[in-house]
Amino acid sequence: MISLDKINLSFGGYTLFKEISFLINPKDRIGLIGKNGAGKTTLLKVITGKQNPSSGNVVIPKNVTVGYLPQQMKLTDSRSLKEETTLAFEELLQLDKKIAKLNHEIAENDDYHSEEYLNKLDLVTELHERYQMLGGDNYEAELEQTLLGLGFERTDFDRMTSEFSGGWRMRVELAKLLLKKPDVFLLDEPTNHLDIESIQWLEDFLKTYSGAVVLVSHDRTFLDAVCNRTIEISLGKVTDQKMNYSKFVVWKEEQREVNLAAYRNQQKMIEDTEQFIQRFRYKASKAVQVQSRIKQLDKLDRIEIEEEDNSALKLNFPPAPRSGRVIVEAKNISKSYGDLSVLENINLTIENGEKVAFIGRNGEGKTTLSRIIMNELEHTGTIQLGHNVKVGYFAQNQAQLLNEELTIFETIDEIAVGEIRTKIRDILAAFLFKGEDIDKKVKVLSGGEKSRLAMIRLMLEPVNFLILDEPTNHLDMRSKEILKNALANFTGTVLVVSHDRDFLDGLVNCIYEFRNKKAKQHLGGIFDFLYRKKIESLKEIEAKSSAAKTSRQESKVKSNNELTFEERKEISKTISRLEKKIIQTEENIAELEEEIEEMDKLLSSSAQLDDHSIFENYENKKSELEAILHNWEAEHEELESWKLKKTW
Predict the structure, then answer these.
(1) Domain range for residue 390?
(2) Angle formed at CA 607 by CA 620 and CA 594, multiple of 5 degrees
(3) SS3 48
(4) What pTM value is reported for the model?
(5) pLDDT at residue 310, as a whole number
């Protein structure tokens, strides 16, 4: 569908891309990965035509549409949320106007056999087919479904976009892009401004989307859920494999060992050849052999090995000073901003050594409660920090608190003590500050670079209670892994506000879900919580379906007489077919849940498991159950819509 042929791109004397070639096929789900600075965003710009390559071609057929979501974009604020989002249907609305105009002209034409009349009939038919293909009269329902899926409320629809924060306005642009339904999506870090619920909704949307997707993301779980093909940019070249990100990482590690062996052999051969040339360069009897070796080296396709990252770096927080058993105790905490109530009667206790996550939709009060714990906001109710609790806080605006006149190295050196001072360069390198970069002044750094620097400072301070608000927003996967390992080994207490499921997995053992001004405690890990939430959501749908059915039966009107006998018969057949399908799906769900329950018992037993495939099978069963539950939900919604038609 889209072809990249031998793309080269150089800036000054630096070559970013070296003859990059690959195809984007229909229905591809491509995860575009690579270190920060490898050129992922630049490659997306090359595909869209916003960046011209030094040489090579990007071929996009005329009938192929491309939708591009950059990390940063210009946002307009002159319309309401619904009006702004409706711009995605500009072509459809223009078609509607043309069809209405043509129908009016046809109605006023009495000459039914004229060529003009017949041409207009053909054109109306053609435009109407295009109109239906783009969604037809269903566009408002799609618009609402998309906005709700991305976390907006119906009460937001008439609000001006200027009233929303930058993150929410980025969601508006994402909604517009999704509703345009291009043949190819190019998405650059689309989850940066989304909460967990919205990320899951976007996952489901992209997994079932009829077009192709090229995705840049540092969210491992999101990449694994959406993508079945991985393209890595490294050393100016691409490696393309039909597998998800996690499988690609394993494959790459295996390939690295192979390439390292080949690289060492080649380096030995180059060294031996150069020694031969130096030894016999001036001997006339060896002139032919020397020239032959020189040509051999010139023609050699040299193996390049990507510079090893700091995978062996074990960065830990300083030992946590001793504190009392209770770290935080909050009673009846409430907070309002003017007439807007954010939190109501929150009760919460965090004990020493706990790893706690605050999750929930944006705007539900997670950051607000974090700041209340830090005594930064006025509130009602009482909050008490325990004995000898020393708090380290990383806020989303933490970067603004750095001394801009210091260099990167000086910023860390001023707080580093003891043996850690000998490792400052390694620590900075682990968070992507390498070489001469460490001599840059803080004031010239980007927002993301400042956030990473602030995170390093926090990791070197001796505290026993860490409060981290969206700490992974500007970290790549390697930096996130280093931070996660350090937090897991931290002997103190951790409270983290995050939407990154992979980061939270295996780190937290207690979750507070923020919703409707309350904070509900859930014990266990993030994926256990999300699984239980899925089951609860399905039960809610069942309850709503039952209530809707009762309501329709009570208020049934004679309007179903307006349907013809054949129409009612066809609707009844469809309802019967869907009911049978749902019964079969429910049987499949019951079987899978039984299998998973048996495997749970086996895995939790003390018996030694020699067959490691059971773990892979266990994860596959859980993924299969999640997919079937999603289908069951969709089937129920479809059934209810057909039952509703029957009452019309």
Answers:
(1) 326-524
(2) 40
(3) helix
(4) 0.68
(5) 45
At residue 585, the 3 state secondary structure works out as: helix
**Is 433 domain-assigned?**
yes
Q: How many domains is the chain built from?
A: 3
* 331 φ/ψ sector (left φ>0, alpha ψ -120 to 50, else beta): beta
Query: Is there a single domain that holds both residue 375 and residue 481?
Result: yes
Residues in the chain: 648
Task: Give the pLDDT confidence of 165-202 residue by residue, as tens digits.
Answer: 777 888 888 899 998 889 999 999 888 878 888 898 89
In Å, how far from its chain's centre is CA 170? 14
* Whether the predicted pLDDT of 136 surpasses 80: no
Q: What pLDDT is recorded for position 483? A: 86
Q: Whole-angstrom Cα distance, residue 188 to residue 32? A: 9
Strands of 212-354 (E only): list them.
212-216, 229-234, 237-241, 326-337, 340-351
Residue 454 tokens, joined: 């602030």
Amino acid at site 269: M
pLDDT digits (tens, 9 = 90+) for 102-135: 887 777 777 767 777 777 787 878 877 777 776 6
> Mean pLDDT throughout 491-502?
92
**Please, which residues have CB within 8 angstroms of residue 113's CB and are 6 or more apart in sequence?**
none
Residues 266 and 361 in one domain: no
Q: Among 217, 255, 170, which Cα is nearest to 29's?
A: 217
> Is 632 found in the same domain as 588?
yes
CA distance linking residue 479 with residue 277, whole number of Å:
45
Side chain identity at residue 142, one-letter code: E
- How far are the Cα atoms of 318, 397, 406, 415 from residue 392, in angstroms, in the given order? 12, 14, 21, 14
DSSP alpha helix (H) spans, 331-423? 366-373, 408-413
C-alpha distances (whole Å) from 623 to each of 209, 433, 585, 620 are 19, 38, 15, 5
- Work out the angle at residue 296's Cα, subtended by the Cα atoms of residues 294 and 302, and round it to the nearest 5 degrees: 110
378 and 511 co-located in one domain: yes
Residue 180: φ, ψ to 5°: -75, -20
Parallel, antiparallel or unpaired: strands 355-360 and 380-385: unpaired
State the amino acid at position 97 in one-letter form.
K
pLDDT band at 456 (very low <50, low <70, confident <90, very high): confident
